[in-house]
Amino acid sequence: MNTKIKLLTLLATAGFLLAACGQGKKEETTVATTTQETTAAPTTVYSLEDAQKAVFETISVSGKDTVTLYYKDDVLLKQEIVTKFIVSKMEEKNPLELLKKTAQKTQEKMKDFIGKGFELKTDYKDDVFIFAYSFDYTKLDMQKLNESIPDLNLRDDNTISYSKYKDSLVQQGYKEKQTTAAKENAVQPVQAPEGQEVAVFRATLGAEVTEYIVYHKGDTITKVVLKTHRNFEKFGNAKDTLLKQEKLFTEENVKERKEIYRSVDGVSISYEVNGYTITTIEEFDYTKIDFAKLKEIDPKSQLFTSFSEMKSDFENQAIFEQVQ
């Protein structure tokens, strides 16, 4: 993944995918259409009901792109894009500031579509900056969107070809993921200690599953365990090479984070390898942590002590859901 190219394309908003499709005009699809009496392009009527789903992904040391497509027949109905940048691995100068400015420019460019089929959210935590945005073509004004993104190349019935879109992703190096990956990495039920409750929040990004396991007494958090599972089973012939690379990266990352928190009681960082899945584990025992000391070591860290506040924060993010 070339971060310089990614940043330039992100400045063009979703055009980094749409422009690459190279879609030409094509005969009408089987989707029902209603034609106006004027010479204007026909308007296509469709919905997400019974839509099929496909997930595509690219991954490198500096970050990851995950694209989720919803489609019916050969009509692309919705796309969700999550782009993760590991800030410390980026080559650009002041990468975090550059990412924030990119997000602002994207939001300004698409402001007329926000809440009308387009959504954009960003998040930054623990050296990872996330762009999460989506296009719901069942809600968007496609002609207006086409004016904003000229390379959209709509077909005559105001739709985008799913097959051509898929082909363009593959040509750009994206690998299709099995939609069962999330089930394979599903969270197992977690038991809470006597007198406590436990909640699990999960985000699935392609073959990567992130879990926050939160133990609490009432509204007081007692412990948080962060687990990140990365599975390489579906990468075919490249899985062994990618697993080896990821293991080396994880070893280095865990070593660095252990050094950062070595003087703080109640913090444990480790990783484990099970087959083609690498899991990093970070445990924060709130009953032992000196929060003032932790703040000195990592001023940007945000550790919620209130369960209701943490839950609200997860609910406000586009990528997490409570599964227990």
What are the secondary-structure elements, in order, as H or E? HHEEEEEHEEHHEHEEEHEEHHE
Tertiary shape: globular
Main structural class: alpha+beta
Q: Report the sheet with the most strands, covering strand number, pairing sense and barrel closure.
A: 6 strands, antiparallel
Number of strands: 14
Helix content: 25-40%
Please state how the strands of the largest beta sheet are arranged side by side: 6-7-5-4-3-8
Structural descriptors:
324 residues; alpha+beta; six-stranded antiparallel β-sheet; 27% helix; 32% strand; globular
What does this structure look like?
The protein has 324 residues and is α+β, with helices and mostly antiparallel strands. The chain has 9 helices and 14 strands. It has helices at 3-10, 15-18, 95-109, 142-148, 162-171, 181-184, 239-261, 291-297, 307-316, and strands at residues 33-34, 43-44, 52-60, 63-72, 75-86, 118-125, 128-136, 175-177, 197-205, 208-217, 220-231, 267-274, 277-285, 321-322. It has a 6-stranded antiparallel beta sheet, covered by helices on one side. The radius of gyration is 22 Å and the shape is globular.
Concise description?
With 324 residues, this protein is an alpha+beta fold. 27% of the residues lie in helices and 32% in strands.
Write the layout of secondary structure elements.
Layout (H helix, E strand, L loop, with lengths): L2 H8 L4 H4 L14 E2 L8 E2 L7 E9 L2 E10 L2 E12 L8 H15 L8 E8 L2 E9 L5 H7 L13 H10 L3 E3 L3 H4 L12 E9 L2 E10 L2 E12 L7 H23 L5 E8 L2 E9 L5 H7 L9 H10 L4 E2 L2
Antiparallel strand pairs: 1-2, 3-4, 3-8, 4-5, 5-7, 6-7, 9-10, 9-14, 10-11, 11-13, 12-13
